[in-house]
Structure formats: structure tokens, C-alpha cells
Amino acid sequence: MPHDKNWRPKLACIDDPIAEDHWEYVTPEGERRISRLVVGRPVHSPKERIWYCPVLIEGYTRPRIKPIFGSGPVDSLMNAMTFVRRFFEANSEVLPGVKPRSSKRSRSTREAPTSSRGVTRSPPVKSRRPLR
User: Fold this and answer.
1) Which pTM does this prediction carry?
2) Nearest Cα to 54, choosing from 12, 105, 89, 97?
3) Is 61 helix (H, G, I), strand (E, B) or coil?
4) Among residues 3, 12, 81, which one has the least CA distance to residue 47?
5) What does residue 64 show for φ and ψ, rounded to 5 degrees?
6) What's the rounded Cα separation, in Å, for the pair 4 and 27?
7) Cα–Cα distances in Å, from 38 out to 15, 53, 87?
8) What are residue 51's DSSP bridge partners?
9) Residue 29: is it exposed, middle or buried by C-beta count within 10 angstroms (0-12/13-18/19+)?
10) Helical (H) or strand (E) element with 18
11) What is the pLDDT of residues 38-96, one digit of tens each?
């Protein structure tokens, strides 16, 4: 790795996304949120002789788009997905594939979700499958 402390790329956008989704979840502080997640295609940085995948998790990644590094394209992608997995595991009631809210109304003023028959649905349960 380079000795210069400012060697990391400053990313303003993800030019070539390979996965994008919106997740609803409850933070460890108990706040319900919806965040957009984007993982970009691995990028080679020949000057630094490294690879990175740009990752965005709205309201979580600092800087906004975080480069996740690896020694090759597959390694950087695996490290990026490990980063996303840790985000998943750090939160509760994670529900992938939700539609982003179109209104600015806060979640706390909305009613509990109901089915078409008016029955209140149970909250989503986070999967705890073992990694292999």
C-alpha cells in the first residue's frame, strides 16, 4: 500500500453498479430506516497496484461511497459483500427489496402494515443461516 495518507480514491459516484437494492431495517438504536445499497464493479488502480469495489449504503458509509479493497477483482468483491453482510448483521428486521418511500412523512406516523384483508402482518424476521 502507498505511504501517502491520501492515496484512497475520492469517489463521487458509482459508474458501473452490479447490484442495487433498498433495504428497510431497524438500527441498533431502534430507529427504522430505508437505505439504498449499491455495489459497483471491481476497479483496478494500477498506480497503487490494488483493486477496490465502490460501495454505497445511504446513511451508513463514510465517506458516502466507500472503496472496499482487495488484492484482485474477486477478492475486492468478496470484501465488499462481507462489508454489506456485516451491515445486515448489525441491524435487525432487515427487509431487502423494499420500495423507497415517495412521501416525506415519517415512519412513526404511519400505521402498521396490513394485508389486503386488513390483518396486521408480523414484522420481518432476519435470516440466521450459517455461512459455509
Assistant:
1) 0.71
2) 12
3) coil
4) 3
5) -50, -45
6) 35
7) 11, 10, 13
8) 44, 70
9) exposed
10) strand 17-26
11) 999 999 988 888 999 999 999 999 989 999 999 999 999 999 999 999 999 999 999 99
Is residue 43 within 8 Å of 52, Cβ to Cβ? Answer: yes
| Distance, C-alpha 87 to centroid of its chain | 7
Q: Is the dihedral of CA 71, 75, 79, 81 positive or negative?
A: positive
Q: How far is CA 57 from CA 67, 86, 101, in A?
A: 12, 12, 16
51 closest CA partner among 24, 28, 80, 17: 80
Cell of residue 40, nine digits: 459497483
Task: Please list, in sequence order, all residues whose beta carbon lies within 8 angstroms of the beta carbon of residue 63, skipping any fewer than 6 positions away.
Answer: 10, 11
Spell 90-128 as b/e; 16+ CB within 10 A means b: ebeebeeeeeeeeeeeeeeeeeeeeeeeeeeeeebeeee
